[in-house]
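The instructor's notes for this session suggest beginning with a concrete chain rather than abstract definitions. Hand out the sequence below and ask the class to guess, before any prediction is shown, which regions might be ordered.
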Amino acid sequence: MAESDSRTGLAAMAQAAQQAPGRGLPPVHLWHPAHCGDIDIVIRRDGVWMHEGSPIGRPALVRLFSTILRKDADGYVLVTPGEKLSITVEDLPFRAVAVERRGETLIFTTDVGDAVEAGAEFPVVVDVDPGTGEPAPRVRVRADLWARIARPVFYELVELAEETGGELLIRSDGAGFSLGAVAA
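After discussion, reveal the predicted structure:
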């Protein structure tokens, strides 16, 4: 997409997202417009949303775009009833930047303001980064969109975990999740 087309596309996507009905998340799973191309938006590994090489400095705009983000078989897209534009996501689209225990449930807060109650539908998964061998924890936010759990938040989870059978386990909303093996 040319620079002027990209700016027009960005403005059109923002306007369409603002017109989404209700105060909750728009029903992006019901929208199936034709693919319009790519837009120069990158969600960096550190969670910063970039447009044409510059950070999107308005948190409200990032939040707005996050509500029309969807992961399709061919990658991440921003979608409205009339447009579908591909974007680049370097790792995962969101960051879990806080966790709080309320009763028996862990509530994660993402960098775009989503609150996620971990449980069977929204699991905590800890993969191992093949390059570093370090844990790469994530939590499901909605549909096939995940948040990378920030390192300080992961340390909080480790503090909350119980050692069972050589693993660190946390529980939330009746579900159990392994944080990994206990180091000898």
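Then share the key points. Residues 3-89 form a domain with the duf1285 like fold fold (CATH 3.10.540.10). The chain has a mean pLDDT of 90.
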